[in-house]
Specification:
By secondary structure, this protein is mainly alpha-helical. It is 65% helix and 0% strand. It is built from four helices and no strands.
């Protein structure tokens, strides 16, 4: 890969890490326990519990993405960066910029 492509990818990864860290913080706030002494109705409490479950799932996905982004950032200067981890073919630059945390080409990812 060319130096300017690597810089562009690194900038994109840094941007995604920042955005994902903010999402993780937001999801953590949304997954705080629901106090039983809150003056909300039974249906509203069930909605709050359901929303908390959805936020917990989103939190897990965001934390997983953050780990993958940080891992890819450590590998950006490796000679095999940009090659599919499964088949070894080059991953198109567009895919890397769209999903910098992915280590597989479109064919192997599906």
């Amino acid at each position: 890969m060319k130096t300017e492509q690597i810089k562009k990818i690194k900038d994109k990864i840094d941007e995604e890490i920042d955005k994902t860290e903010k999402s993780v913080a937001s999801y953590k706030e949304m997954t705080k326990p629901i106090a039983p002494d809150d003056a909300i109705g039974r249906i509203t409490r069930m909605d709050a519990i359901n929303n908390k479950s959805v936020a917990e799932a989103a939190l897990r996905k965001a934390e997983e993405k953050l780990l993958k982004l940080k891992y890819v950032l450590t590998k950006i200067n490796d000679k095999d960066f940009g090659l599919c981890a499964r088949c070894g073919n080059p991953i198109p630059l567009g895919r890397i910029l769209l999903m910098p945390q992915s280590r597989h080409c479109v064919h192997c990812a599906s």
